[in-house]
Structures are given as C-alpha cells and as structure tokens.
C-alpha cells in the first residue's frame, strides 16, 4: 500500500508541474498594491523552507484587491482594516500543493461567497508548508491549524463570535479546518469539507481528521473517494456526488500510455477538484443541488431513496450557504450519507427521474432498453435486466432538463439474438420527477406489447409551467 501511494504521489507531482508551468505562462500579474499568495520552489523546499502562514482579506469593499491581514491589523491606526467583526467570516483553506504554486480556484470561490452574502473572507495561504512531499505536508497541517486558531482567538477578542466562523477546507484543508474546530471544542459555527483528503486520513482517529464534533455543523462534498478523497462520511451530512467517485464529464486522460499503468493519473484534477467547482456553482446559481439520504449509491440508483421524509421530515439538505444546509430537524444527524447525480458542466444541477416498470410474468429473463428524448439534449438511456420472479422495477435516471421537457419515450427489447426473447408485456411504464412536491404528475403509458425486433415509442404532449 505504501509503495502504491508513493508511486501515486510521484506521478501527481509530475502532472502538477506540467499544469502549473502552463498556467504560469498565461498568468497576469496582479497590481503591486494587491496582496497575493506566496509561492515556493523545489530549491527552497530542499533548503528547508520554514512553515509560514499568511492571511488575505477580501470583503465587498475590496473584492478585486486582497489585503494582507494578521492579528495586529485590527489595532493598526495607520491602516484601518476592512475586517468587520459584526459580519460572519468565511475562512478558505487550501490543501496540498504539489509544486508550490498558488491555487487557481480561490478567486472564484471568494467572489462567490461575497456575492452570496455580505461577509469577511479570509484566505489562508500556507503554500510554504503545503508543497512537494505529501507526507511532510501532513506533518505540518496541525501546526497550521494552531496558527489559525491564534488569529481566531484575536478576532473573538475584538467582537467576532465563534459561531460566526465558517471554515471551507479543500482536500487536506478540510482536515486543517477540522483541527481548528477541535482546538475550539467544536464551538465554531460551520465547516465545509470539499473532497476531504483520503491518503493517510481514512484510518485516522477522529482527533486527527475532520469529523462531526469539530463544529456546530459539519458538511462534506465527496467527488473522488476512490483515490485522493476520503471514502468515509466525516460530517453531520456527507454529499456523495455521482456516488462520490467518477464524475460526469471527467475524462480519464489524454495520456493513454500512462493510464495503462496508472489509471489514477487522469482523475487528479477533474474528479478531486469537482467538489470545489460544484460548491462555487451552488453559490452562484439558483438551481438546487440537493442530496437524498440513502445507505448506498446502489440502493439510490435502484429507486429506494427518493425522498427525505424519514430523516429530514421532508426537507432535503442542499449544497450552498443555507443555514445547516437547510436542515430543520434537531438533533442533527450524524455522518448521514446523501446521494445525488450531477450534470457534466456548470451549473451541474441535474433533474432526478424515477423510472417505474410493471411487467406481466415472463417465461424467461429478458433485457430492455429505455430511452428518454428531448429536443437538443442527449438521449437518456437505462438498461434493465428483467427476471421471471419479479414484475416491478425501479431505476433512477437524471437529465439536464426537467420532466416537463421530455418529448418521447422509447423501449427496445435487447435480449440475446441467439436465444431470442419473446414479447414483453408492460402493464405500465411511468416516469416521475423527485423530490415529489405534490405538483407534478407522473408520465405513464400502459398496456405495451414489445416485440423483440420491433422497438416501441410514445410521444408526450406537455408544457412546462411558466412560474
């Protein structure tokens, strides 16, 4: 296992060098008066660069030009700080930086937060301690958390409340956030972990990683739990997008020869960072990204978890800045897994459909392909294996467009050519959108006789409400 992780980190570093070099060539330097991230080099790392942490402050008054912030800033008469202790404070903490470069997503995340709410945004820059050797970076993360806690203590003494702090940690930054919360006895307001790091943390004690006791509300978004993200729930609620692993629209890699030996290579940027971009989109978009509680993704896909009645009394948790994710129940759940599917691009929202089939008794097993079509959109397909002993089937499908824009449904008997399947009689085929608000009726077609070589289709005549 240790050998595999070492190999992975080696190739991660090589890949990040390529990405960082390309990005650096196109980067425009910020104005001299604006603060920016530190960067470090391999040479500095070899010389034993000290752990240095600096803070960048952004508010609605200086959204385009960050200022350096520290514990002396509030009492400096020469340069009054823009920090407002009466406002909530969002603290952004990046994770591992393979090549010592600054994260490219920070500006978009800070702007999203400031557009969504009038807050202080503090960006933690710990590039010096977060770069190159991953094992050494993991050794640094608690010291970074200690330094952050010193600043938070100073801000509390100037009028901020612990409950007003919301830590947003990316990858390893999620565990930094968790340890800050531990230092304050879980009294900070909120922690959002964006694909919390998995290597060296999955089997760690809760004292050493993010967990629900670290804040009054802890949430996590998982998008790469099979490689660089953690696979276990670490919050009050944990959103597993598309099962928490392979994300829609993420290609494996154009480096096919490398993938033969290292399939993780192409997932590094896309899957692991999808949590960040989904969260930014949730801040900027009006379409909801809601999760459905379910013991597993397989059961979710099988249509067994299509509402939030049992655990959340009907209101599904939502990604974004709603208080406690929109959860109204008390006490809060503990490590509740939530599943949802997303689209492949911004705003990432997908409409969830429940396909329900009722089939007359079969003489032998069969296979059927169901296709939903709408103008200008890709086909949505689902294949189901039908068994003699079952006559009802449920499957979850998703699309960029709502149910009211589905124009037709197509059925095809895809049984074996050599062992030709006989006709299949469907008593009903229904499609409904969930969560069910009680306002949308299912689309149903009944009494369908489907021959092996004669595909069947039905056009829907419907319009979307203009509300």
From TrEMBL:
Q: Which UniProt keywords apply?
A: Calcium, Disulfide bond, Glycoprotein, Hydrolase, Lipid degradation, Lipid metabolism, Metal-binding, Secreted, Signal
Could you tell me which CDD domains the record lists for this protein?
Pancreat_lipase_like (cd00707)
- What are the binding positions for Ca(2+) in this chain? 209, 211, 214
- What GO MF terms are annotated? metal ion binding; phospholipase A1 activity
- List locations, semicolon-separated: Secreted
Query: Does the keyword Lipid metabolism belong to this entry?
Result: yes
Q: What's the superkingdom here?
A: Eukaryota
Gene Ontology CC annotations of this record? extracellular space
Task: Please list which residues make up the signal peptide.
Answer: 1-24
- Where would I find the Lipase domain in this sequence? 28-348
Q: Which GO terms describe its biological process?
A: lipid catabolic process
Kindly identify the residues recorded as the active site.
Answer: 171 (nucleophile), 195 (charge relay system), 272 (charge relay system)
Identify the main location.
secreted
Stored InterPro entries? AB_hydrolase_fold (IPR029058), Lipase (IPR013818), Lipase_LIPH (IPR016272), Lipase_N (IPR033906), TAG_lipase (IPR000734)
Q: Please write the reaction equations for the catalytic activity of this protein.
A: 1-(9Z-octadecenoyl)-sn-glycero-3-phospho-L-serine + H2O = sn-glycero-3-phospho-L-serine + (9Z)-octadecenoate + H(+); 1,2-di-(9Z)-octadecenoyl-sn-glycero-3-phospho-L-serine + H2O = 2-(9Z-octadecenoyl)-sn-glycero-3-phospho-L-serine + (9Z)-octadecenoate + H(+); 1-hexadecanoyl-2-(5Z,8Z,11Z,14Z-eicosatetraenoyl)-sn-glycero-3-phospho-L-serine + H2O = 2-(5Z,8Z,11Z,14Z)-eicosatetraenoyl-sn-glycero-3-phospho-L-serine + hexadecanoate + H(+)
Similarity remark: Belongs to the AB hydrolase superfamily. Lipase family.
| Name this polypeptide is given | Phospholipase A1 member A
The organism encoding this protein is: Anguilla anguilla
Q: What is the taxonomic lineage of the source species?
A: Eukaryota, Metazoa, Chordata, Craniata, Vertebrata
